[in-house]
Structures are given as C-alpha cells and as structure tokens.
Amino acid sequence: MKIIGGPASQLLASRTARALGIEPVLSEFNRFPDGELYLRIAEDIENERVTLIQSTPTDSDLVSLLQLIDACEGAKELNVVIPYMGYARQDKKFKPGEPISARAIARCIRADRVFTINIHEKSVLEHFPGPAENLDAAKLVGEYISGLNLENPLLIAPDSGAEGLVKRVSSGLGFDYDHLEKTRLSGDTVVIKTKNLDATGRNVVLVDDMIATGGTMAESIKMLRSQGAADVYIACVHPVLARNAALRLFNAGVKDILGTDTLERAESRLSVAPLIADALKGL
Ligand code: R5P
Among 162, 163, 244, 252, which residue is least crowded by beta carbons within 10 Å? Predict the structure, then answer.
C-alpha cells in the first residue's frame, strides 16, 4: 500500500506509514502566481493500492484533497482518510435557503472507501458516494490521560453531546466521569451550568470532540475553578483552536491543552496513526 499525505496531514501520514512499516510517498505542494494550488505526487502510483490522508480544516485543504483524489485516477484502489473534516458541523439546514455543507463536500469525495475520525455528526457518512466509516480515538485519548498519572481525576464532558465520548474515554480505565449543561447564546458565547457534580479538590479533565473558538471550554473552566476544582486540563480529538482560542483557555486558567494530530498543532500531543494503521491493516 502507498500512503500519501496531503499538506494538512504530513506528520500523521508519515506516522501512519511508519506504523505500517513503509515509506510515505513524497508529493510537491505549491501555488501558481495567481494563488491557485498546484500539487504533484512524485512517485508512480499506477495500479497501486493507495491511501490518501488529508484533513480539511481550510477550504484550500479541501481543494488539495480533491486534487489528490484526481491525481490518483490510475490507482488500483483508493482509500481516503479525512482525520478532521471541516464543515461537518453544518450537517443540516438551520435556516431555509442554507446548504447542507457537509453533504455538499461529502458528495465530491469519490473513493473506494472513506475513513473519518470522530466526525462531529455521524449522519454525514451517509452522504459519501461510497462506503464510509468513522474511527474512534476515545481509547487513545483515555490511555494518554491515564499516562498523565493525575491524582483523583474526574473526566467531564462540557455538554450532553460529549457524554458518549467521555464515557468511552473513561471506559476500562476506572475514571469517574460526568457532564455539564451548556446553553449557547451566540456563535462564541455559552453559559454553563453544573449537573450533579462536585469537582471540589478534583483534578478535572474536560473532554470534547473538538475545541473551535474555545468558548465552550473557557466557560467550563471558569465555572469549575469557581467551584474549587484543582487543576483543569482539556483533552480533545480535534484541536481546531481557531482565532485566539488557546489564549482564551489559558486566561480561563487551563493547566494544559491536549489534542491529537488529526490537526497538526503545538497542542497535538498524541497521534491517531495507530488507529488509521489498524483500519488499513484490516482491509
Ligand atoms: C459542539 O457540539 C462541539 O462538540 C464542541 O463542543 C464545539 O464545537 C466547540 O466549539 P467552541 O470551541 O467554539 O465552543
């Protein structure tokens, strides 16, 4: 199998190739003078089994993925891994006249098989033209938290939507877990209320699928600290960390931010490469 990493997932593709005991394929990425994207796969992949790995946090990354898929037309088999899929939160029409953006994008991804990782809304998988599967990084996140050796940790989901994730992260590791109640007032303002929770004196790890603006987490951290929590950490699968999210979180008093390399950030402390490698081994 040939592993090709797009511009947003070079490290993750390299780590996945290493986990499979192979060298990643080199590609060139550039721009034309007018700003349009150029890429070239620098190896013959004709009649090969190919796996592309490319997250799509930006529109340019999405274009690169479409270009890579097109450049692989001669491959015998094409698997596409989208570790972080941008627009996945736009999974329904919130107002008349809106597109279902996640569907619009999924429909363009023509491959023998697509893998996502902790996609925000699983129903998006139905919109890919071919088979699509969502991989779950919860176990890896749980093992990483376990390795921090925190005293008396309490894992908390910032809202009921992340309850399933925090439960799976805690599974088999014996962590206590709970969730908060969130009311969203606007795009980046939320109010958090406690559920049945006593975080006093506990080292808390807030767990969510992604941190975007950091609004959800900043409010949660402030609320937990005002209740007397000890250190408050954040663990997420996708460290989007848009705008000044990291600063916001440190201002709110977070001890540390832990994410995976579905997005390559300074906070990407653990790799989902073993998850992807295992899925590819099973093909
Ligand atoms: C929402 O349902 C997600 O699970 C996250 O809680 C949300 O996307 C985080 O967004 P932000 O960091 O902007 O509050």
Answer: 244
- Say how far apart CA 281 and CA 283 lie, in whole Å: 6
User: Within 10 Å of residue 46's Cβ, how many Cβ atoms?
Assistant: 9
Measured from the CB, is residue 212 less than 6 Å from ligand 1?
yes
> Are 227 and 199 within 8 A, CB to CB?
yes
> Is the CB of residue 215 below 6 angstroms from any atom belonging to ligand 1?
yes
Distance 226 CA to ligand 1 centre (A): 22
Over the stretch 250-275, which tens digit does the pLDDT of each residue have?
999 999 999 999 999 999 999 999 99
Ligand 1 near 209 CB (within 6 A) = yes
Q: Tell me the pairing of strands 189-193 and 181-186.
A: antiparallel
Angstrom CA distances, 205 to 86, 156, 213, stand at 25, 6, 18
